TrEMBL record:
This protein's UniProt keywords: Transferase
GO MF terms held by the record: acyltransferase activity, transferring groups other than amino-acyl groups
Domain N-acetyltransferase, first and last residues per copy: 9-165
Protein name: N-acetyltransferase
One matching Pfam family: Acetyltransf_3
UniProt superkingdom: Bacteria
Keyword Transferase: yes
Organism whose genome encodes this protein: Aureibaculum marinum
Amino acid sequence: MQALTGNNVYLRALEPEDLEFLYAVENDLSFWEVSSTETPYSKHVLRLYLENAHLDIYEAKQLRLVIAESKSQKPIGLIDLFDYNPKHKRAGVGILLIEGEQQKGYGSEALKLLIEYSFRHLNIHQLFANITMDNEKSLNLFKKHNFIEVGVKKDWIFIEGKYKDEGLFQLINV
């Protein structure tokens, strides 16, 4: 897959050289709430994952792309399509940016690139996102890109001894 290029970021496939970046991100406790991670990942497990990252979305039912900053070419985040269903032409979207790279417009540009790719090249009819209702940054990001709240799952996420509501947002390609 060719890199999907914007003005300040581009999206690219995972490479074996991304092992250290992936290890740092997957084991960052601050991301565990949104990724539903419960235990740390070993480098061995992540190396095996990278070896299978070549599987296309039709086979793996997911697609993980690195968000790279255009000037430095350094990885600054990840953006995913998950739960891809080719029959119903839908997929979930997840995005994360590392500390220090948030609130710079990178996430918005990456999400725009992924939306365009999903609708034009994968022929997806709708994208969805699950966002805890206290995650203002993500709520604002997805609403900016016309995702509509279609429901709230009450007490859906249990984290640090508390329940959180999670919103379901959709973007339908009409």
